[in-house]
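Quick one: structure for this chain?
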Amino acid sequence: MGLGEAASLAWGTTVTVRAGEEHRKILVGPAHFDQRGAHLKILPLDSASATSAEKFRRANGYTAMSVAD
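Got it. Here's what it folds into:
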């Protein structure tokens, strides 16, 4: 994943991280930047799924906005 792609991730995005043969789904937030470089925020949940991502977004005000006609 490139820096631009990482920076465009929404809060509560489900990603799979891999280390050798192991892999785990986690929820992340958008990239943040500091003197050490770019980093993804890892959200503190035991298990990531589409349901947990939606619950996180709803609970924290990160749901899609709509415009009234």
